Amino acid sequence: MANSYRNILVTGGAGFIGSNYVRYLLDNYNDVNVTVYDKLTYAGSLDSLADVLDSIRFIKGDITDINLISNVMKGIDAVVNFAAESHVDRSLIDSRPFIRTNVEGVLILIDEARRQGVKRFLQVSTDEVYGDLYYSDKHSIESDVFAPKSPYAASKASAEHLVKSNFHSYDYDVVITRGSNTYGPYQYPEKIIPLFITNAIDNKPLPVYGNGMAVRDYMHVEDHVSGIDKVLRKGKSGEAYNLGAREKVTGIEVAEKILTMMNKPLDLITYVADRPGHDYRYSVDPQKAESIGWKRSWVFNEGLKHTID
Ligand code: NAD
Questions:
Q1: Which helix (H) or strand (E) holds 220?
Q2: Percentage with pLDDT > 90 across the chain
Q3: CA angle 206, 210, 214 (to 5 degrees)
Q4: Taking the C-alpha atoms of 176, 217, 250 and 198 in order, what is their torsion angle to the nearest 10 degrees?
Q5: Cα(49)–Cα(52) distance, rounded to whole angstroms?
Q6: Mean pLDDT of all residues in 21-34
Q7: Residue 225 CB–ligand 1 contact under 6 Å
Q8: 226 CA distance to ligand 1 centroid (A)?
Q9: For ligand 1, is residue 23 a contact (CB within 6 Å)?
Q10: Exposure winner among 127, 191, 228, 303, fewest CB in 10 A?
Q11: Confidence of residue 1 (pLDDT cuts 50, 70, 90)
């Protein structure tokens, strides 16, 4: 594929989606130089990049470290920012690291990118900025008002406002993606799908929140990263793009499917106290991303089976 950004900085590239994106870049462009900048928190690991470490530049660092960021940004054409504290449950226990990385870190990154003339800044955001759709049949569209409920979602919404302010105030070239719940290889096993799969391997209970009826639109990570790349190349400056798989899956269905696919007994399912402020339903309309040429290729049942394998 043609590549208008030769030198790409992938922040948070040792995490789940970031490491898959690095692999996507190397597989699809032969003239790309990838720099991964990552703090390697509990969620990041060089193991996620082991097969590509020889083909990239890796720098360990925090996105709030202005001096290091300023050095790393030299010669970069585009920044794709995945770096984040990403787990809602952790944000309910202590939200301060979420503000530091997801808000302050993004501000430091985008200010430095703009000052150094980096051509385009892509912020990886989330469908959680829209908040709960409850029992409606509605799908969130990009112009909907934000109504984040968890501290995690609030921090991601704040970051989006800062990124957009750079477009409005400085005419800086920014784009944003709002992906739905993502699953696939290299995900840290605190998130529902890898947690359930690893618990099932060990014959341990699968903890389902509340009545298990919270609905999510699960998207395979390969689709998420191809969407991010499409928005980087084709997205209109200043715009956000939903990325979702048009799936509708409840927590209990995730548990049942995993146990059935793994030939494990359904009585491993255990109901636990609901997450405080648990959103009942998210669902994005990905039509705008489809209009620039992206479409998802994985359906949930096949993607889940592949992930288990
Ligand atoms: P992850 O937790 O697996 O990875 C985050 C990465 O960021 C890790 O490698 C971590 O070491 C790094 N990091 C954290 N704080 C940092 C800091 N201060 N400086 C530098 N690096 C730091 O997360 P993920 O699931 O891959 O999510 C990536 C992005 O996608 C996040 O911005 C998240 O909000 C967004 N997102 C995730 C999902 C999902 O379902 N996982 C869905 C939509 C959007």
A1: strand 219-220
A2: 95
A3: 90
A4: -80
A5: 5
A6: 97
A7: no
A8: 17
A9: no
A10: 191
A11: low
pTM: 0.97
- Please say if the pLDDT value at position 155 is more than 90: yes
Cα(85) to ligand 1 centroid in Å equals 6
Ligand 1 atom closest to Cα of 14? 9
Please name the residue that has the structure tokens 């998210």.
282
Tokens of 260: 């059935």
**Quick check: 202 pLDDT over 70?**
yes
- The set of residues, in sequence order, having a beta carbon less than 8 Å from that of 245 and lying 6+ positions away, is 180, 217, 218, 219, 220, 223, 286, 296, 298, 299, 300
Q: Is the CB of 156 under 6 A from ligand 1?
A: yes
Contacts of 257 (CB under 8 A, 6+ apart): 301, 304
Which pLDDT tens digit goes with each residue over 108-144? 999 999 999 999 999 999 999 999 998 888 999 999 9
Q: Give the closest residue (by CA) to ligand 1 atom 33.
A: 86
The tokens for 74 are 């030299």
Residue 4, pLDDT score: 87
Structure tokens at 29: 């462009």
Ligand 1 site-directed mutation target among 23, 40, 41, 49, most atoms within 8 Å of CB: 41
Taking 70 as the threshold, does the pLDDT of residue 8 lie above it?
yes
Binding site membership of 40 for ligand 1 (Cβ less than 6 Å): yes
From the candidates 38, 128, 173, 217, give the one annotated as an active-site residue: 128
Ligand 1 mean position, distance from CA 40 (Å): 10
Structure tokens at 100: 């530091």
Q: Is 179 in the pocket of ligand 1 (CB under 6 A)?
A: yes
Order across the sheet with 78-81: list the strands.
57-60, 33-38, 7-11, 78-81, 120-126, 174-179, 240-243
Active-site pick, 38, 85, 112, 127: 127
